[in-house]
Structures are given as C-alpha cells and as structure tokens.
Amino acid sequence: MAASGQPAARAVGLSKAYGSGDTAVLALDHVDVEIDGGRFTAIMGPSGSGKSTLMHCLAGLDKPTGGEVWVGDTELSRLGDKALTRLRRDRVGFVFQAFNLLPTLTAEENITLPGDIAGRRTDPAWLRQVVETLNLGDRLRHRPHELSGGQQQRVAVARALAARPQLIFADEPTGNLDSRSGAEVLGFLRRSVDELGQTVVMVTHDPNAASFADLVLFLADGRIVDRLEGPTADAVLERMRRFDVRGGGPVAQPAPDAD
Amino acid sequence: MLKATLRSFLAHKGRLALSMLAVVLSVAFVAGTLMFTDTIGSTFDRLFRSTSADVSITAHNDVAGRNDQNFSGTVPTVPASLIPQVAHIPGVAGVSGRVAMAGIVLTDAKNKDIGAIGGAPTIGINWSPGPNSPVDLTSGVAPSGDGQAVVDADTVSKHHLVLGQQLHVIGATGGFPVRLSGIATFNTTNPGATLVFLDTATAQRKLLGHDGVFTSVDLTAAKGVSNEQLRDRVAPVVGSAYDVKTAEQTAKDAAQTLGTFLSVIKDALLGFAGIAVLVGVSLILNTFSMLVAQRTRELGLMRALGASREQVNRSVLVEAALLGLIGSTLGLFLGVGLALGLIKLIARGGMVLKGSQLAVHWPTVVAAYAVGIIATTVSAYLPARRASRISPMAALREADTPGRGAPLRIRAVVGLVVLAVSAGLLVGAATDKDLGQAGILLGAGVLLSLVGLIIVGPVLATPVIRLVGGWFPRVFGPVGTLSQRNALRNPRRTSATASALMIGLALVASLSVVGSSMAASFDAQIDKTIGADLIVQNSTGLPFPDEVADTVQATPGVGLVVRGQGTRGALVAADGTQDRTVVVGTGPGLDKVVRIEMRSGTVAAGTAPGHAMIGSNYADAHRLHLGSPVTILFQSGKAGTLTVGGIDVTDTNPGGLADEPVVASSTLRQYVPGALDDIVFVNVAPGASKEQVKSALTTALAKDPQVQVRDQTDYKKLVRGQIDLLLNLVYGLLALAIIIAILGVVNTLALSVIERTREIGLLRAIGLGRAQLRRMVRLEAVVIALFGAVLGLGLGLGWGLAAQRLLAAKGLQSLAIPWSTIIAVVIGAAVVGLLAALGPALRASRLDVLDAIAHE
Q1: Are B690 and B737 in the same domain?
Q2: How many domains, in total, are found in chain B?
Q3: B479 to chain A: which residues are within 8 Å by CB?
Q4: Is pLDDT larger for residue B681 or for residue B65?
Q5: Pair (B74, B143) in one structural domain
Q6: Percentages of chain B per state (helix, strand, coil), in multiples of 5
Q7: Which domain holds residue B157?
Q8: CB of A102 closer than 8 Å to CB of A74
Q9: What ipTM does this complex have?
Q10: Residue A6: what pLDDT?
Q11: How far is the C-alpha of B772 from the C-alpha of B769, rounded, in Å?
Q12: CATH class (in words) of the domain with range A37-63+78-247
C-alpha cells in the first residue's frame, strides 16, 4: 500500500531513554528518519545500537520519550493503548524473529487472525494471492509445530501481508533460520514490495539480509550514522567495517545465524 | 541444595500463594471444627459438673431414659418421703428435693414464646438455693406461691424482661400466669437453656402434676466424706428402686448423651473438611506439576551441574513440606477465627458459648500440622518424581510449551475400566435388597466412580469442551476460538483443574437429588396416609397439656378429634426378650384420620380398651394372631398384657405407626398416668370450611404458641422447608471445597498466563485489544468451569439416582430431579469461571507488549 508523496512513516527528533537521572541510557538520540512507501528499508547496526528500539517506536509497540513518530498522517506519541492497538491491528504488520504464531491455531487461522480480531473478513482473492506467492497452499491446515522454521516465518509474512497494512515491520525475520530458508523468506519480502506494492521495514544485523533491501540505514549509539541505496552484501559489509573503525564501537558480528 | 530449594521457594512464592491458601483453608476447616466441637464439649462439661449434686437419687427405670422427659410429659419421680430416710445418714450435710422438667413453655403476656430456641431446652425448676446451686439470685426475690417465677438472666436480657412483668408458664398440667419476681445468673456459661424457677410446691403441682414428689433428691456430702463414700452409704438405704449417683457419674452420663450428638456433628464437619482437603490436594498437585513443567530448564541445569535425581526429587518435596508447614500455621490461626465465627453463628441458633473459653487442645494442633504437611507432600510426590526424571539435556534444549505429555490411551482404558466397575457397583447398590450391603456398594461405587472420572477426565476434556464451548467462536469470534483451544491445549491440566470443581458439584447434585426425592416421597406419603383435615402438633414433637385438645374440641366447626400420645416402652416376647419401641396411644377414630393398611383385624378393634394393634413384622416374628396376648412394658415401668385386636402391614404404613404398637389412650393412661398428647388430628364438621376452622383453631390456640395447626399443604411445606434448610447447610459446608476449587481455576489460569506470556505479547502486537485479551482469559475459565460442572452434574446425578433407588425401600420411593438446582449449578459454574478469571485476566492485559514478546 504505497502512499506516494508522503512517507509511510517518519520520526522527528525521536528519543528514547531507559531509566532516569545518571543511570539513564539513551537508546535513541534525536533520530530523524523517513520510511518511503512501497520500498524495502533495512535498519542495521551492532547490538545496542538502538535499531530494535527504533523499529518498536515506529510500530507503536514502544513509547518514545521525546520527539514525534508518524505512521501515515497519524502522530503516535499522544495515542493511548486502545488507539495504538487499533493502529497495530489495522495499519501495521509484524514479523518477529521467533514465536510468531499462536500454537493453537492453524496456519490459515494465524494468517487471518489480525482481520478476525478486527472483525473483518480477509479478502479471499487477496488471501489466495498471498498464499500462492508464499507457496503455502498445502500447509494451511497445519498447526505451527507441524511446520518447519522457514514455513513458520513464511506464515508470519503471509499474516503480515494478509491484512494489507500500510507498513510491515520485520524484526530479524531470518535470525533463527538456516541460510537457504532465510533467503527464501527474504525473497518473499522482496516480492511483496515489488509485486504487491508493500512497504517493509526490517531490522537485521546480517549484511546478506540487508542486501535484499532498497535502502539500508545504519544506526550506532542511537543515531543514524549512514545510509546506503541499492545495497549489495559486500557493500554493506564494507560500510560496516568502515563505520566500526571510524566509530570505534563494538565490532558488528556479521554472522548470519547470530542471535 | 537446601539453600537452592529455599531460594526457589521464595522465588516462586507468588505462584505458590494460591496453593498455600488452599492449605490454609483446609487446615482452618479441620482445626476450626475440632476447636468448635471441643468448646461445646468443655462448656457442657463445666455446666454438667456445676449442676450435678454431690450425690443424687432418682427413680430407677429401665424403659424411660433418665433424661427422657420429652416423651409423654411424664417423668419418673421420687417421693418426698425419701428425704427424711436419707437425711440422717452420716456424711449427709444437706438434702433437697429437686424438680426439673424440660419441655415446658414460657410466654410473655402476648403469648409469644420466649423460651429457648434451636433445640436447647426450656426447663422448669424448683427454687432451692444451696451451696451447690449453679445460679445466684442477682436481682429481685425468690419465687413464692404459684404466681411468681425467677428467670435466668440470659433470657431476661434477650427479651428485655423487667421485674414484675406478667409471664405465662405452660407445664404438663396446662398454662398458668406468673410474675417475674427475680433474675438468676449462672455462675458458669449457660449454653442456651431457658430456666424458669418456681417455688417447690408450684413446681411439683404444675410441672409434675403431683404434690410431694421430686424428679431427684440431691445430697450434699459433709466435709471429709467423698461422693463415692456417700453414695455407697445411701444406696443400701434407698434400695434397688432408686439409682444413686455421684456428681461425677451424673455429669459423665449427661456428657455421654451429648457426646454422641457432638461426635455426629464433628464427624460431619470433618467429612466436609476432608472433601476440602481432597480438593486442596488436587490443586497443589496441579500447581506443582505446572511449576515443575515451567522449571524444566532450571531443573535440567541443576542436574547438569551435578545434582542427583534424589536431590531434585527432595528439593521439590521440601518445597512442598515448607508450603505445608507455613500453610498449617496460618490455617491454625484462621481455624481459631473460624471457630469463633461458628460460635457466633450458633449463638443465633440458640446455643450460647463463650469465645473466651475456646478450647484449643494439643490434638487439634497436631491434626492441623499433620493435615497440612501430609496433604502437601503427598500431592507434590508425583510432580517431584517427574522432576527427578528430567534429563540434564533439558537445560540445553529450547524450552518448548510444556505438558503435551504422553498419549492418553492408557488413561482412557484404565479410566473406563474403573468407571465400568463403579457403574456396576452403583447398579448393585440400587438393586441390592440388603440395605447394609447396598450402602457399602454405594460408598465404594461413589468413590470408584470419582477416581475413574478423574482418571478419564483428560480424555473427556476434548469432546466435552468442544460441546460446551463449541458456540464460542461463533459468538465471540477469534477470542472465542483461542480461549476454547487454550482450554484444550493441555487436557491433563484442564481436567485436573476442573475435577476439583467436579467433586464439589457432584456432591451438590447428588444431595439435591436425594433431597428433592425426599420431599417428593414425603409429599406422596402424606397424600397416601394422612386422612385428617387438620393436625395440631408441636413442631419439635414435644407433648402439650390436655387443655390444647380441650380448646380444639370446643372450637366451632370442629368435627372428629383424635388425640395421640407417644410413650417409651417395650414389646416383651414370650421368652422375656424386650424390643424397645414407642407405644402409641390414640383416641377412637384413628382410621378416620390416618389411612392404615391392615393385614387382619381393624383399627377400631386394635385400639379398643385392653387391646393392641401391632405391626405385621413383629406379629410374624413372634407368631402373633388376632386374639393373641401381647405383653407391653410401659414407660412407667409397669407391664400389661393386652389382646391383639389388629395387625397392620409394617412395610407400607407410615413409619410412626407401622412398627409401633398402638393402644387406646385410656389403656395407655392406665399404665402411664398423665401421658400427654403430642398430636391432635382434626376433621372438620360436615358443612364447615376447612380454612375457616383452621383459622378459628389458630386463634383459639394462640395462648399455646408451642403448637401449630397445619393442613397437608402446610406439612408438605414444613418438610420441604426442613429439607431445604438441611440442603442449604450442606451446600454451605461444601462451599469451602468449591472455593478451593475456584482457587484452583485461578491458579491454573495465572500460571497459564505466565507460561503464555510471549503468546500474549504477540497477540497484543498484532492488534488484540486489552479488553479482548481479558475476555479470552475469562472465556477459558468459563469453559474449564463448565467442563467441571458437566462432569460433576453427571457424576452427582448418577450417585443421587443410585442412592434414591437404594433408599426406596426406606420410603424414598419418588425420584425427583431438581432441574432448577441443576440449571443454577451450570450458571453458577460459569459465574465462578468469570470470577476466577478476574485476576489472571487483568494481569494478562497489563503485560507490557515488548517485555512479553521478549519473555523467555
């Protein structure tokens, strides 16, 4: 659901501090960022760089301590729990690293769950298209424990797509997968952008994963320190090395399977 | 290791809190019951000791019980002439004659009964102050003449009586007015009796109906003479016609009568406490199973670090024992509160005890700790064993959703076999002719079916929950689906949680079936046997003076009046063996007011003077026919030989008449002079309206508030009311078991919420609202509770049915299923589920989304 002109989401002077006083830790330090609609954006950075916090704030999962967060034309920092819940339900899709699915529901029930919660029927034609795209046709009646890790993540992607959200947030979606399944899931996210016009924001520390994106944002110490358009894995790796030397921060672990 | 155990115990104290509460409640019930009954016992012991004379002389009587003044209003007496005979015996420091007559009535000027209530007696006593008197005159003057009475201080303050106030005493010879001349105060606790003191001559004449007799002669021992010595000196003087007892013996005899009654109460209460403990055990077992499952990784780590199986096992058991220890201590304290509460409660029912005299004996303390610690360790045994089997590898494995467990096939087979056997036993109980044997079968069947259903519960969970929660998805959408599936997720856990509720509800259901069958059977029996239009009777069954029947007879519109008396007695067989029974006296016309099925002869012939009507069972056993002589030993101690004039069919006639010999009132009074009526049957005169006569009688009998006029409908209502009261009492006692079962539901839900934290986080992340989440938890609780209710009701109906068939031979011939109670139970269970889910649902909805997603 690409919104042309206006960014799908943006943050203005976004700060997030944990704790208070002397012991306060600034996870995000006046971040300004725009997420373009219809594109695949990756957020990269070493552990503790604030990349997950940024995503959580953008998705309405976490409350910023300063600045503004916009999803479309809605400003989130003043919304209450009910409105945020509705926002997540209706306008945002999620793919987490693990434990994405409810064990008691079948794959199909998991996919239609956000719509069911909202009391909306998922458009059957769209659902068929999503299921076909993700190659899940023969797995719909299975429970999560009967699916492989890659299949489970594909179901999670299908769930995120099924409700046609403005934005999909993926938090290390391939972190728990072997490289082949990981590539498969990333390929589907890519296709959802190219073929279905979806907007995807992905947090990762895997340069290979980041190479599927249109744009990579690099985060360190709570600030956006760099951006890379049309990345390749090597280019991402190169930037990270450079940035490590320059920033003197902890060396990013480019291991694809790292937790 | 012990340190690790203690740490773990403290770390999980929140999760153990509800198990602890279950222990506390069960132990409190046990301890409270023991303290309560001990307090009753000790209060009465003190009372009996303080009211017993050093040595007392009473008439010896084999037939009438010593304290049996409730029958016929006559009582064995001792002539006053005995006093000078014993007064000169060395060692006698004082002699006094005592008149004490229970079952009198005290009313105020408006004919309102102000005597004792709730089974406590109203006793008329002659005023004889002495060193051993249990009361002191604290106000006014001693009674003198037949117009004065002293009343005990408790009654005076309860009814705000003032000196000089006009009162009315109704004794064996009828009612008479008195003025309150003084107030007497007990020097021990008076547990609720109302005492009316009259001067000796008035007491003899009005209460016993004779001058110059006493109910006992009381002796005071001189200094240096023991009660035993005095008794041994007095006994030979008075001879075998009298019983001579020391104060200790008198108190012991009295305590024995009370003890039997008390032990029935105690056993009943402890039975309910036992049910509560059983439910508590299942709750604790469930809690520890869940905790062990949730701590698989932690326990695996301990094993990996070198803890032995025994150590892991022991650590769980020690944790349980600790829980039991603390729970028992708290339970003991709560038990004190409970006992004090019970004391307050029965004070309203008429039995006054003093909280400050609460009896806490050491066996109570031992029992409390034994119950608490044994219950917890026994219920933790299985989870502990499971914990010790956790492999060290578990520490390394990804924590999976615990508790899918082994397949349920073996469980299904074993459970069904047990259920089949128990069904056989219940059918056996329902069809067995031998009542004792059927009772044993019933007990075994009840127990085994309970065990069987608990075993097979997890297997039934899936189909039953699909049934009771099948409509949830349609009504509540995905929240309904999720809650139903969550309940089905771990059938063992769901079923263990539900079975606690099942036990309580099964008892409620079965007892309500028996109760309503009793009411229905009684209705049917009244319709079948009672022919009288109206019956005048004291609702406690006590006899009343002749003036009542005279008043009835004189009321306009009254037709046939038949008066009945009941006295103690015995049927004496040819070989001298005695069968103790009640001997019933009746005026002419009994067959016009009671429908009696006769084997031979007629009611009229059987109740003609000098004749007797006996039951067919006795007649068969002793080969008696019409015209045979039959010897009856009467309450007075006199025996008479009468002629069998009628034989009624024992098995089909109402219990009160079938087994008992019936004679003419005039014959009865030959042997038991002064026997009072305890029932008056009335048929209205032709042309008179029953309603009008009833209200006329009620008005005419206003001065005798102890008797009521009832028609058949009133009787049915009365019995129904009594059955309902009993049922409500039992439901009240079962409430504790049900409360513990609710705690179990709360506990399971709370632990499930903890276990499913990540899932809840996910649901919240993808847009489930807080209210929807709360509803999901609530619906899961409702489903579990309904599952318990369905099993419980099924089980309880089975038990009730078997019990009704079993008791059919004893008169419980009609089966009535109390549908309203059953529907109430189902609705109640759903409400219980909602209540149980309040806390866990709130907790789940308050989880922070991000924390929850990141939760391990």
Answers
A1: no
A2: 3
A3: 117
A4: B681
A5: yes
A6: 60, 15, 25
A7: 61-240
A8: no
A9: 0.85
A10: 73
A11: 5
A12: alpha beta
